[in-house]
Amino acid sequence: MLQTVKVNKKYFTKLDLSKIPSPCYVIDTKVLEDNLKIFSQLKTDTNVKILLALKAFSLKNLFPIFSNVLDGVCASGINEAKLGKKYFGGLISTYSPAFKDIEFDDIIKYSQHITFNSISQINKYRNLCVNKNVNFGVRINPLYSEVDILKYNSSNLNSRLGIHINQLDKLDFTDVKGIHFHSLCEQNFDALENTWNKIWPYLKNKVKKLEWINLGGGHHITRSDYNLNKLTNFLLELKTKTNCQIILEPGEAIVFQSGILVGEILDYIHGDNDKIPNIGITDISPVCHMPDVIEAPYRPLLMNEPTQGKKVLLGGPSCLAGDVIGEYNFLKKPNIGDKVVFLDQAHYTLVKTNFFNGINHPKVILWNSESNDLKVIKSFDFKDFETRN
Ligand SMILES: Cc1ncc(COP(=O)(O)O)c(C=O)c1O
Prior knowledge:
By secondary structure, this protein is of the alpha/beta class. The chain has helices at residues 29-46, 63-67, 78-87, 101-110, 119-131, 189-203, 228-242, 252-255, 286-289, 292-295, 382-388, and strands at residues 24-28, 49-53, 72-75, 91-95, 113-116, 135-141, 163-164, 176-180, 212-214, 245-248, 259-269, 278-282, 310-315, 324-330, 339-343, 363-367, 374-378. 27% of the residues lie in helices and 23% in strands. The radius of gyration is 22 Å and the shape is elongated. The protein starts with 23 loop residues before the first strand and ends with a helix. Pyridoxal-5'-phosphate is lined by residues 53, 55-56, 74, 95, 182, 185, 216-218, 249-253.
């Protein structure tokens, strides 16, 4: 089970839930602006380039807010690269475990940086990139990670992501301009420093030929206990030592704590004896609306949950027996129709929703906690279900 990240309980307390339809994601643009201030300062202090990882969050209505501060996007393939090019601009950096011939011409058109995952893909596409003047690099697997959960550890021996660091001598570095690694997950600075210390001995003879080093995502920069001072000093030193442009491509940290998912209790079943818990059926399906609850898995935080109280097992409306959010405490058992609010639901949620069982996507509302302005920016209906089938 992935540990649930703690959030600041003050977020979203001023939101009038009676104005929010259910189910609905609400994004607080004030929180996004506060997060972006941290990245803006880091850029000023270190000259690092920061890209939004679209895999974590790709709501294009918000791109103007992000692109005021950030340098571009990190894309996982053709569609994210095209979205980034069309709506975000700046540096589009595309990495995929393997590119397909049929898509590669377009990927080159949309991207300024391409990161390859293997020596064979570099050899295959090297000339094309050089001819089209596209800057390319290679993803390495540092073979070092502090991520305990295997699914999120991209740097183990059997990982398919990147060339093993000790195999780099097999690569002909002609025209290779960059090095990329991504081996952190919701981590503080020390994990980055430890990882870099493992990488450096293998890179120190190669950096002279390079233009950029991309440190991937997973840096939990906007968390209150993140050691920003150490990161700042590290980035400055790295720049001096390597003379390369340093790039970060966080996703989660950029939208951290900016979103909630609001649902309501539709019905109860059981709970009339001590052996079987109260089971509340909600209009939020973890399978469809918070897939990481099942996939990670993890237990999302419920707003205002007391440490003890009436226990209710909350689940979704789909047919899957495991469409269960988790067991939660309430001061008193909520009534049918009462709202339930799950915290920190911006990243890796809207990008992962699906129409399993034909269950509708939640609406999306932008709210500003300072001005209290509220705007529905997305609503879904049968047409959306119909067009994807
Ligand atoms: C290559 C790459 N870059 C960036 C990210 C963004 O990571 P995060 O959202 O944890 O910051 C990921 C996430 O999986 C990734 O695989």
